[in-house]
Amino acid sequence: MTDITAELVLKAYTYGVFPMAKSRGDTDVFWVQPKLRGVIPLDRVHVPRSLRKTLRRGDFEVTVNRDFAGVMAGCAESTEHRADTWINNRIIDLFTELHDAGLAHSLETWREGKLVGGLYGLAMGAAFFGESMFSRATNASKVALVHLTAILKAGQFTLLDTQFITDHLKQFGAIETSQKEYLAQLSAALARQGTFSPPLPLARLEEQLFPPR
Fold first, then answer.
1. β-pairing verdict for 104-111 and 114-124
2. What residues make up the domain containing 152?
3. Contact 75, 10 (CB under 8 A)
4. What was the pLDDT predicted at 1?
């Protein structure tokens, strides 16, 4: 099998293909191109009412790119609800390289100075490819996801790719789209340039996600 490099990963994403491993302990990586793709339309993000209260209370400190390695480790770890993951050491190495190049980003949620949740993904053009998230405290990953959508909207991104769709993501407005439609959205997003910024203050986050009707 041809060695997968960071450069090859970037090229693959432009064709709607991404890498995964069969398990945390596997040494190999394979390519995936789902026929149905999960996306969160950034003009229709839904934030559950209870989560809005969590955001307004400031239960978590949210940062960007403070602990990329910690987020990847959290996403790769097994839990009582997830015995294994698709993130192996090769995936970690590849995305660490992309992070060092300024292309892969993490959002972290902290409580009392401890990393309790977060997510990471890859930004190209005006597309953000969400890879994985983890949570060690109730709502920790959800808060990170809400902040991500606000950052993307403020930065003129047009595509938030979630790869697959889950009940967890459906809460935020995630939908499935055909491969043909996804590739059209991807092409349009890659022709533009978004700006990935630090977390928005609460007032600006609400401005992006809860505009007056």
1. antiparallel
2. 34-83+105-209
3. no
4. 45
CATH number, domain of 205, equals: 3.40.630.70
Residue 161 lies in a domain: yes
Q: At what angle do helices 89-100 and 68-76 cross, to 10 degrees?
A: 160
Tokens standing for residue 204: 């600006």
| 19 located within any domain | no
Give the predicted TM-score (pTM) of the model.
Answer: 0.94
Per run of 10 residues, the mean pLDDT along the chain (length 213 residues) is: 84 96 87 95 94 94 98 88 81 97 98 97 98 95 97 97 92 96 98 97 92 71
The answer to whether residue 94 sits within a structural domain is no
Per the structure, how many domains does the chain have? 1
The H or E element spanning position 129 is strand 127-135
